Amino acid sequence: MSINTKHAALNAWIKEIAEMCEPDDIYLCDGTQEEYQRMIDTMVDAGLGTKLNQDKKPGCYLFRSDPSDVARVEKRTFIACEKEEDAGPTNNWIAPDKLKADMKAIYKGCMKGRTMYVIPFSMGPIGSFISKIGVEITDSPYVVFNMKIMTRIGTAVLEQLGTDGDFVRCLHSVGKPLAEGEKDAKWPCIPNVDEKYISHFPEERMIWSIGSGYGGNALLSKKCFALRIAGIQARDEGWLAEHMLILKLTNPEGQSYYVAGAFPSACGKTNLAMMKPTIPGWKVETVGDDIAWMRFGDDGRLYAINPEAGFFGVVPGTSMTSNPNAFTQIQADTVYTNVALTDDGDVWWEGSGIPAPAHAIDWKGNDWTPDSKEPAAHPNARFTTPAALCPVIAPEWEDPNGVPISAILIGGRRKTTIPLVNESLDWNHGIFLGSIMGSEITTADITDKVGQVRRDPFAMLPFMGYHMGDYLKHWIDIGAKASADKLPKIYFVNWFRKGEDGHFMWPGFGDNSRVLKWIVERIAGTGKAVSTPIGNLPTPDAIDISGISVSADDLDHLLEVDKEAWIAEIASIRENYKSYGDRLPKELDEELSKLEKRLA
Ligand code: SAT
Ligand code: MN
Predict the structure, then answer these.
(1) Which atom of ligand 1 is nearest the CA belonging to 290?
(2) pLDDT tens profile 350-407
(3) Residue with the nearest Cα to atom 5 of ligand 1?
(4) Which of 149, 330, 428, 538 could form a disulfide with 310 if both were Cys (CB 3.0 to 4.6 A apart)?
C-alpha cells in the first residue's frame, strides 16, 4: 500500500504513517466537487449524517458529534519544542521525544478497518507569495469534506508542491480502529478527554492529533497550522500570523479601507467581519473572519491575506439581527454540526430568531420540545460554509498580493474600564494595548476567578506556538523595521461596557460601524479626538449616533477615562507581566510605567 506522488519526501512520510497506523486503504484526495459529494453521500448512506430537506436547505447536511467531543480541548493541546522555556507560561509543554513515544503507542494500528485519506492543502491562494502548503493525513471522511470547504485542497496543491517543496506535516486520527466486521460509531473518537492529544512539534513544523474529530482539533489547517505553527514560521521569517478578521470598509464617497481585528472567542468576530452598517452609505465587505497572515509589501505597508477558504462559525446566536449575511449564507451549501433537526428535515438553533419548533431531534439525537431542560443545539454547534458564497465577500478576498491594512482593532469583553474605542499613541503603545486585552471571567468558565480579567494578548492565548513574551517582542520588532507612517494604527475597542444596572451601554452589531467610521476618519485626518493618559479618545460629538438611542450619560461613560479603575488595572497588568519573566519585552514594561506616570 503506497501513494506515488512526484514528491519523494511526501511519499516517504505517507508510507511511514501508513506503517504505523495500519489503515485498510490509502486515498489521495483530488479536491474535486465530485469527491466532496461522494464523501458526504457515503457518510449519509451509512447513517452517519443527515441530508437536510433540499427544498429548505439545498446542499446542506447535518452531522452530530459524540457528546464528549464538542470543542477544542486546551488542556490537551501541547507545544513540544526542544526547550521547555521556549513554550512559555501559557502553553502545555512535553519533551518532544517523550510525547512522540507516548503518541506512537496510541497511533499504532489506530486506522485498522479504515481508509487513510491524504489531503494536500494550501493556506492562502495557491501560489501566492504569502501562502503555505500542508498535507493532512486523516482517517475521518468528515475531516476531508470540511477541509475541502475550509482550505484549497487537492491536485493543484500537489502541482504547486512540485518534487521538493516544503509542507507542514499534519497527522490526525479519530483514534478508533475497527475490528473485523465491527460496526462504526456515528462519531468515532476517544471519549476520554485525557486520552486526546493535539500536539505541535515546532522545530519540525509538524502536528499530531488523535482522539477528537471536532473543529480545530481535527481540521489541522486552522488553529494548529495557521496560528500555532505559522506563528513560528512568521517569527522566523519576519511576518505575522494572527487570530484576526479582515474587513473592507467603504465610505459614502467610495473610498475603501481594510481593517484587521483581533477578538477572543465569543466577542462577535464573524458578526463584525460580515456586518451590515447602520449608517447610511457605508458598506462592509468580508475578506476573512478568523485568521490573517500579514507581510510587508514592496511599498512598506502591511498586506493581509485570509489563509482559509471557508467559515467555521458558531451557529447558536446567528440570526437576521446578529448577522444577516451569515444567516443568509448558511441557508445553502453548508455543513451543520450539532444543531437540532426539525420534523420537516430543516435545522433549528437557539438565538436563530425563529420560533422554537414544537418538536425536534436535539444535537445528541434525542427528542426535544421547548419544555426540555437542555438546549436543542450545542452552544458550540458550527457551520462550515465556503467563503466564496458569502453575500458580502470582497471581490479581492483571494488577491494573492493581499490587501493593505490601515487599522488593527483589538478588543475583548469588558464591562468596565475599557472605553468604546481608544486610539493608541504609537506602535509600541498599540502593542501594549494588545498585550493587556482580555475578557472578564464569567461563571461559564468554571473557576473561582469570576470577575477577574483573563489577559489574552491579541486573542492568541489558546493559539500560541511559542513563548508569549517572545511573541510580543516579535510585534515590537515588526514595528521597528517599518516606517511609522506606513504602519496600521491600532485601536482598542470594547462593545461590551455595562451600566451599574447591567444594561449594555452600546448597541453593538451593525452600530459598531459608527466606531469604524470614526477610525477611518482618524486615518483620513478628519476625526476629532482628545488626548488622554490612556490614548486618544473620540470627542463626545465625534461618534455618529444619529438615529440610535444611546443616552448622553452612557456616551459619557463609554468615552471616559476611569482613573481609579485604570490604577487597579495597572496592578493587575503588572502581575500578569511577571509571568513572562525576563522574556517580557522591556518596551512593554516602559509603556506600563509611562501609563502610570500619565495617570498620576
Ligand atoms: O474549533 S476551532 O478551533 O476551529 C474554533 C475555536 O474553538 O476557536
Ligand atoms: Mn477563532
Answers:
(1) 8
(2) 999 999 999 999 999 999 999 999 999 999 999 999 999 999 999 999 999 999 999 9
(3) 216
(4) 149
Q: Which residues contact 326 (CB under 8 A, 6 or more apart)?
A: 270, 271, 274, 311, 313, 318, 383, 390
Ligand lying nearest the CA atom of residue 291: 2
For ligand 1, whether the C-beta of 265 sits within 6 Å is yes
Residue 570 pLDDT > 70, yes or no?
yes
The question of whether 81 is a catalytic residue gets the answer no
Q: Is the CB of 462 under 6 A from ligand 1?
A: no
Is the Cβ–Cβ distance between 69 and 216 less than 8 Å?
no
Distance (Å, rounded) from C-alpha 49 to C-alpha 500?
Answer: 47
How, if at all, do strands 77-79 and 115-123 pair?
unpaired
* 243 Cα to the center of ligand 2, angstroms: 6
Kindly state if the Cβ of 312 falls inside 6 Å of ligand 1.
yes
Torsion 30-339-247-239 (CA) sign = negative
Question: What ligand is nearest to the CA atom of residue 292?
Answer: 2
Q: Are 547 and 526 in contact (CB under 8 A)?
A: no
Q: Contact at 8 Å (CB) between 27 and 39?
A: no
> If you take atom 3 of ligand 1, which residue's CA is the nearest one?
216
What are the cell numbers at 458?
491579541
* Interacting residues of 404 by C-beta distance below 8 A, sequence separation 6+: 258, 297, 299, 301, 302, 303
CA angle 141, 382, 446 (to 5 degrees): 115
382 lines ligand 1 (CB under 6 A): no
Own/partner contacts of 7-13, CB < 8 Å, gap of 24 or more, are 7/158, 7/161, 7/162, 7/163, 7/164, 7/165, 8/163, 8/164, 9/164, 10/135, 10/161, 10/167, 13/135, 13/169
Question: What's the first-to-final CA gap in the chain, in angstroms?
Answer: 71
Residue 448 pLDDT exceeds 90: no
Q: In angstroms, what is the span from residue 11 Cα to ligand 1's centroid? A: 30
Q: Whose CA is nearest to atom 7 of ligand 1?
A: 72
Instruction: Give the angle 222-226-227 at the CA atoms, nearest 5°.
Output: 100
Q: Which atom of ligand 1 is nearest to the CA of 222?
A: 4
Q: Are 290 and 263 in contact (CB under 8 A)?
A: no
Nearest CA, atom 2, ligand 1: 216
Number of the ligand 1 atom closest to the C-alpha atom of 265: 8
| The three cell numbers locating residue 310 | 471557508
| 511 C-beta neighbours (distance < 10 Å), count | 20
Instruction: Using DSSP, state whether 217 is helix, strand or coil.
Output: helix
Q: What is the structure's pLDDT at 403?
A: 98
Residue 416's Cβ-count burial label (10 Å; 0-12, 13-18, 19+) is middle
Q: How far is the CA of 215 from the centre of ligand 1 (A)?
A: 6
Nearest CA to ligand 1 atom 8: 265
Q: What is the dihedral of CA 463, 465, 469, 470, to 10 degrees?
A: -140
Pure H helices in 22-154: 33-45, 96-107, 141-150
Percent of the chain with pLDDT over 90: 96
Whether residue 318 is predicted with pLDDT greater than 90 in this model: the reply is: yes
